[in-house]
Structures are given as structure tokens and as C-alpha cells.
Design the sequence.
């Protein structure tokens, strides 16, 4: 399928019946990937639809739900997050995620033109999509420090790691678009292409480290030392 096979629009009150389907897909996706993802309730998704702060996608020919994403605001509107990007499995690899991300980004810029737009991701594909829009990889210190935002990570399997690092690092990569100080999308896209191998390796290391941290025996200790030695010799 191609991108023009989908209808991608701001969600509204007529779409609230899709909230449960969307939340079920969030849970299924988290289990399938084995990576952290904060849980969302149907009521929360409905709220975003009613507030006009979300984008929903359907297959034009059938009207079947295909994807979703929503806006969150933090620090009194100083920061905006485009969260919960999800695409139904049957429509993945059709460029739909990129199209939804572009539409939620435009909606965010329209509603909050002065806000910094940020995101956390564990996936290289989402990093590329963000880079194409003008996001840059940043440290966690450049994100909102609003406790309410970080509380949303409590349902993530990596929450203990986040807190052990005093919210300064975790398995996700932080990315930010600052409307007052940013590169052009063409520049950030080029930077991503130039560094994609580095990003891919770093994400792989993070996932390996997460698995090691989950072990509590002597073998795990040896594995940690081996990984650290590998980083020291080859990074």
C-alpha cells in the first residue's frame, strides 16, 4: 500500500469508539517488541480526541483504523511531546508512520508555535522520521523536568533503569525540535544519514545492556564486564 491509500486527519468526537482498539494495539506492540512503552487508557485516548490534540488514520477503501498519535504538553506549554505513535500491523512498512508523524508535528506547531517539541524512542525508524522533521538527538537534561511527564514512564519495563540514572539516561533516545534554535530538516536528515550506523550500534548496545541488567547472577556480572571491555576497546 502507498501513503495516498490512507485518510490522515485530526481525531474528534466521532472517533472515540476507536480508543479501545488503539490501546489494545499499544499493549500488543509493547509485548511484541519486548521494549518499554508507557500504558495508555481508553479514557485518556478519548480525551485527546475530544481536545483536538490527536491524529488518526484510516484505510480509505475500507474505513479500517490504521494509525494514531497524540499531543501532550508539559511545563505550562513550554514543551510538547508527540506521543503514542502507533500503526496497525497490517499497514506497517507503507510509510504511514512517517505521514502520521508529519501531521501531528504540523498540528503541534499550529497549536503551540513557541513550544519545544520532543520525543523519546527506542527505534531507529522513529529516529529517522524525527530527523526528517528537524529533530536533533539531545541529552535528557534538555527535556522537560516536569515530574508529571516522568511519572508516565512508571508503567514502562525500563522505569527502574531510568530512576537509577536519576532521569539522566535510559533505554530511549531523546530528540528535540526547538523552534527558536534549530537546524533545517534537510540538515538534520543529512546528519542522521551520516551517523545512522553509530545510532544503530548505540541502540543495540542499549538493548543488550537492558537485558544484562535484568540478570542477577554471577554470569551476568561477567557479561557486564565483557560488554564494558568491548565498549572501551571499540567505541
Sequence:
Amino acid at each position: 500500500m502507498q501513503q495516498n491509500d490512507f485518510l490522515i486527519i485530526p481525531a474528534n468526537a466521532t472517533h472515540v469508539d476507536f480508543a479501545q482498539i488503539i490501546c489494545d494495539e499499544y499493549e500488543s506492540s509493547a509485548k511484541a517488541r519486548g521494549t518499554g512503552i508507557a500504558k495508555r487508557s481508553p479514557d485518556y485516548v478519548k480525551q485527546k480526541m475530544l481536545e483536538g490534540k490527536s491524529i488518526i488514520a484510516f484505510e480509505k477503501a475500507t474505513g479500517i483504523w490504521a494509525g494514531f498519535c497524540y499531543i501532550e504538553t508539559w511545563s505550562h506549554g513550554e514543551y510538547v511531546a508527540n506521543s503514542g505513535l502507533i500503526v496497525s500491523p497490517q499497514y506497517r512498512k507503507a510509510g504511514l508512520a512517517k505521514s502520521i508523524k508529519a501531521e501531528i508535528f504540523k498540528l503541534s506547531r499550529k497549536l503551540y508555535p513557541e513550544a519545544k517539541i520532543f520525543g523519546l524512542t527506542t527505534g531507529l525508524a522513529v529516529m529517522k522520521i524525527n530527523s526528517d522533521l528537524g529533530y536533533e538527538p539531545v541529552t535528557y537534561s534538555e527535556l522537560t523536568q516536569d515530574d508529571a511527564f516522568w511519572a508516565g514512564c512508571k508503567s514502562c519495563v525500563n522505569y527502574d533503569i531510568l530512576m537509577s540514572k536519576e532521569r539522566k539516561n535510559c533505554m530511549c533516545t531523546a530528540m528535540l525540535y526547538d523552534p527558536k534554535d534549530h537546524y533545517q530538516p534537510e540538515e538534520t536528515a543529512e546528519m542522521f544519514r551520516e551517523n545512522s550506523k553509530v545510532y544503530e550500534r548505540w541502540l543495540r548496545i542499549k538493548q543488550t545492556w537492558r537485558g544484562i541488567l535484568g540478570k542477577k547472577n554471577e554470569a551476568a556480572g561477567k557479561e557486564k564486564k565483557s560488554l564494558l571491555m568491548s565498549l572501551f576497546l571499540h567505541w
Q: What stands out?
A: The chain has one domain: 3-234. Helices lie at 19-33, 42-50, 96-111, 124-133, 147-151, 159-164, 185-213, 218-234.
